[in-house]
Design goal:
Helix 5 crosses helix 10. This protein is α/β, with parallel strands linked by helices and 463 residues long. The relative contact order is 0.14. The chain folds into three domains: 50 residues, no CATH class; 344 residues, Spore Coat Polysaccharide Biosynthesis Protein SpsA, Chain A, CATH 3.90.550.10; 66 residues, no CATH class. The chain has 14 helices and 23 strands. Strand 2, helix 6 and strand 3 form a beta-alpha-beta unit.
Length: 463
C-alpha cells in the first residue's frame, strides 16, 4: 500500500482516520486505505470552515416563462429541435441512482414496473422513446445513465437481461455518481460506517455533471459530435426524453444562449412542496419550498395565478460546451444538510443509530447551474402531458396517481385520433388504456397504429 500524507490529514482535522488505519490489518486495512485515498482533504477542510448556506435575503421575483400557446413559436421550435436530432447532436442523460425501497420494490428504481397494463419498467419506457426517435431521425441517440455505488451492478445487469431493450449496446453508457464523506456535526471529523469503512453519502444530483466529466463520457460525447444533453430523472414515466419543441427553444438565439434550459410545471397549490423557479439578485435559480415565506408562496398575479407557480420538474437541456467549462472550473457549490447518519463508535465497537441529527452531509444541486449560465430559459410544460412522477407507495406522486395520469394522457391522445372514450363519473377513462412509448411519443404517431372505434368500461387496450 502507498503512503498517506499525515500532515495533510492533521491539517484537515482528520488524524483519527490514520489512527484507525493503524489498528487494522490485511484486507480490512486495504479496504480502509482505498476509502482514505478517495478523500479530498483540502475540499473537506474548506467546506467545514465555510459559512452555512445563507438564507434567502433578497426578495425573489417570478421568472419569465415561455408558454407554448403560440403555434408559430411552436412550429419554429419544432423545426430547430428536429434538425438537432436529425444531425445527431443530442444525447439523453437519466439520473437513476436511487433504489425502489420506498415503493416496496427490491431493486433499482428504474427497474420498477410503471406501465399501467404492460408493467414496463421505467427504463423500458425511456428506452422505447429513444428507440422510436432513433428510427424517426435516422441517428443513434447516446443514452447516459447515472447509477450509484449501491445500484450500479444491478442496473447494468438489468439492461443486459433486457438486451438493452433493443437499443445498440454501444449507445448506452453507465457511470456512477460521486460520493462525499459524512462528518460529525460538532467536530467535523469524518464518520465511519464500519470498522474499516468511511460513511460516504451520494454527492447530490448536482454531482451528475462532475461524474459525467470524470468518467470520460462528457469528452466522448463531444468527440461523437453531440452538442446538447437532455437531462431527466428516472421517476417520471411521462417525461419527453427527446422533445423537439424544448430542444428547439433551447438553441433559439433570441431567447436562449443554449447553455441551460429548464422545464417547469404549474404548481397544483401554493402549499405543494416543490422548488420553484425564481429570479434572485438578477439571476435565474430554483427557490426551495422550505426557504420561501408563505406569503411569497401564496402571492398571485392579476389573473389570479400563483406568481411563483413554475415548479421544478428536474428536466433540463444543457449545452455540452457549457458543461465542459463548468466542470473544468469551480463546479457547483456544495450545500450542508444536517441528517441522522448511523456511525461506527470506536469506543463501543458497534454501529450506533443516532436519535437526533448528528452529521453533516455535503450535496450539490443540479439547478445551481442556472445562475452560472448566460440567458438560461424556463419553458412551462403541460403537467397532464409530461409530469407524473412515482415517488411514493401511496398518496400523492404514487404509483396509482402516476398510472392514472398515464391512462388519462393515453385516452386524450386516442380521443384526438378519433377514438370514442367512455368516461366514468370522475371523468377518468372507463377502460384500462396504455400507449407504449415505443408505439408513440406524440399523438401524431398513432396514425400508424390500428385503433378501435370506441373504448368502454371493462375493456383493456394496449398499443
Amino acid at each position: 500500500m502507498g503512503s498517506l500524507d499525515s500532515k495533510a490529514f492533521a491539517a484537515a482535522g482528520q488524524s483519527h482516520l490514520l489512527r484507525r488505519l493503524d489498528q487494522l490489518s490485511g484486507d480490512q486495512a486495504a479496504r480502509f486505505q482505498r476509502d482514505l485515498e478517495q478523500l479530498d482533504l483540502s475540499c473537506l477542510q474548506r467546506l467545514w470552515c465555510a459559512d452555512d448556506d445563507a438564507a434567502i435575503q433578497v426578495a425573489p421575483k417570478p421568472p419569465a416563462l415561455v408558454e407554448l400557446t403560440d403555434h408559430a413559436v411552436r412550429a419554429e421550435a419544432v423545426s430547430r429541435g428536429q434538425a438537432l436530432l436529425a444531425q445527431g447532436k443530442v444525447a439523453c442523460l437519466t439520473v437513476a441512482g436511487g433504489q425502489g425501497s420506498r415503493l416496496g420494490w427490491d431493486g433499482p428504481k428504474g427497474t420498477f414496473p410503471s406501465g399501467p397494463i404492460s408493467g414496463d419498467s421505467l427504463f423500458a419506457q425511456f428506452a422505447g422513446q429513444i428507440q422510436r426517435e432513433t428510427t424517426r431521425y435516422g441517428q443513434p441517440v447516446p443514452w447516459c445513465i447515472m447509477t450509484s455505488p449501491l445500484n450500479h451492478e444491478s442496473t447494468v445487469a438489468f439492461f443486459e437481461q433486457q438486451r438493452h431493450f433493443g437499443l445498440d449496446p454501444s449507445t448506452v453508457s453507465f457511470f456512477t455518481q460521486g460520493v462525499m464523506p459524512s462528518v460529525d456535526r460538532e467536530s467535523g471529523e469524518v464518520l465511519l460506517s464500519a470498522p474499516d469503512a468511511i460513511a460516504f453519502n451520494p454527492d447530490g444530483h448536482g454531482g451528475t455533471l462532475r461524474a459525467l466529466a470524470t468518467s470520460g463520457l462528457l469528452a466522448r460525447l463531444r468527440e461523437q459530435g453531440v452538442e446538447h444533453l437532455s437531462y431527466f430523472q428516472v421517476d417520471n414515466p411521462l417525461v419527453r426524453a427527446l422533445d423537439p419543441v424544448f430542444l428547439g427553444l433551447h438553441v433559439e438565439g433570441s431567447v436562449s444562449s443554449g447553455e441551460v434550459t429548464s422545464k417547469a410545471v404549474a404548481k397544483r397549490a401554493a402549499e405543494e412542496k416543490v422548488g420553484v423557479f425564481g429570479v434572485q439578485d438578477g439571476r435565474l435559480t430554483v427557490l426551495e419550498y422550505s426557504d420561501l415565506d408563505p406569503q411569497v408562496c401564496e402571492a398571485t398575479d392579476g389573473e389570479g395565478r400563483l406568481m411563483f407557480r413554475a415548479g421544478n420538474m428536474a428536466v433540463h437541456a444543457f449545452g455540452l460546451a457549457f458543461l465542459d467549462r463548468l466542470t473544468k472550473g469551480t463546479g457547483l457549490p456544495f450545500h450542508r444538510a444536517i441528517k441522522k447518519v448511523p456511525f461506527f463508535d470506536e469506543s463501543t465497537g458497534t454501529v450506533e443509530q443516532p436519535s437526533a441529527p448528528n452529521a453533516v452531509k455535503y450535496e450539490t444541486f443540479i439547478f445551481d447551474a442556472l445562475p452560472m449560465a448566460t440567458r438560461p430559459l424556463v419553458v412551462e410544460a403541460d403537467r397532464s402531458e409530461e409530469f407524473a412522477p412515482i415517488k411514493n407507495a401511496e398518496g400523492s406522486d404514487s404509483v396509482h396517481t402516476s398510472q392514472m395520469a398515464q391512462t388519462a394522457r393515453a385516452a386524450k391522445w386516442l380521443s384526438q385520433s378519433g377514438v370514442e372514450i367512455v368516461t366514468g363519473s370522475s371523468g377518468q377513462p372507463a377502460a384500462q388504456i396504455e400507449i407504449r412509448s415505443s408505439s408513440a411519443t406524440c399523438p401524431e404517431d398513432l396514425a400508424l397504429c390500428e385503433l378501435p372505434a370506441k373504448l368502454g368500461a371493462g375493456e383493456r387496450f394496449l398499443v
